[in-house]
Fold each of these.
Amino acid sequence: MFERVLVLAPHTDDGEFGCGGTIAKLVELKKTVYYAAFSSAEKSVPENLPRNILRTEVEEATKVLGIEKENLILYNYEVREFPAHRQSILEDLIVLKRVLKPDLVFLPSLRDLHQDHKTIAEEGIRAFKNSTVLSYEIPWNNLVFSTHCFIRLSEENVTKKVEALKCYRSQANRYYANEPFIRSLAKTRGTQIGTEYAESFEVIRLFLE
């Protein structure tokens, strides 16, 4: 029922972690998927790597998931400083709403502890209040997360999520950036609904035709 989908990622890789399997499934179903990342977190890149490496990596990762190159949108907000730029972010989101006209939007949880994630969640809900909005799961940032909605995933969907995240070689040292963790979470969410794999979401707003 959804045809135009927008994934809002505070930083490159957040969208893949939160809903990479779902992105792969939606592309497989011939839906139009857009991915907007608001920071390539240059201040957080290891000193021995190029400052723009995350921009290169998100291009590779979204290609693996099947997102068209022209549907990847990158902004240049400084990592950890989103709250100071709340109004500019909202204005960018309103432009995305007007130009892309998404009927389904994915964004972080309102209860995400990271200040950048929380800002995108709050301003995203404000901008897209007339679209269906689902919050994705980032376990290391969520003290609590309500599993309101599940999307069933195939083995191929999960494999594409894993392969997309492997494109982030600069982030490979993160303790959660590994295949066993990614698969175990998908397996856990699948077990909750009696299927092999799934991703879970909080329902912020739901419009049914």
Amino acid sequence: MNKVQLAEKIAEKENFTKKAALELVDIVLDQITEALVSGEPVKLSGFGNFSVKEKPARLAKNPITKATVKVPASKKVSFKPSELFKEKF
């Protein structure tokens, strides 16, 4: 399912226009993104938690050339599903 399909499902279920539902999805995703960029975790009860994790710099080896490569530090978004979410599978 992509963003447009999600908006269509919301529009059908809640009797919104597709345009209004797409705007709603965009607003929700923008707010989640803004919170994560500012370092704030996002906790959605019954769904899961999003957080930003720091990955330290490290050395890696190219498997073909066997050369050592420096991998810079980075940030990764992590998602941990809630127990209710896990039970549905």
Amino acid sequence: MTDLRAYDSMLTQCSDPRDAAELLLLRENLRSWRFYDHFRTDSDAPGRRRQIGTRTPILASDGADLAAAIATIQEIGAEDELATAVADAFPGGSIDVRQDGGYFEIEMRQHGLLRPLDAAELSDGTLRYLLLIAALLSPRPPPLMILNEPETSLHPCCRPSAG
């Protein structure tokens, strides 16, 4: 290919299954990788929003489909492992997905609270924890998953010791 510009990628330009099958296969393999290098937890974070309900076997890199990923884990994935992971971090706690008009939203019950909290009300650390367990319990995990500094929101008493 002689007309490839310096800023173009071979993986986007060479996608002909007859002439560049290896590059096409490589491109599709790379697309399936997930890099969870920073989950936003601010008030406008994608993981805090309601989302259209659909099966989501792999959490999006930005966590925008958190409620759908949790619903999929509960329906076809590792429901018991999800419940255990939530209860380990929040004794007496549970997570569920509320469905309303085709939209999904997280609901978390915690011991001592009179009503469930939705994703907008969760602490940054709680939201990040739920995002991480949704990524790790995906029914169809990606062939490569990178979690960058997953301990950044853990309470100091729960962080692994250095050295």
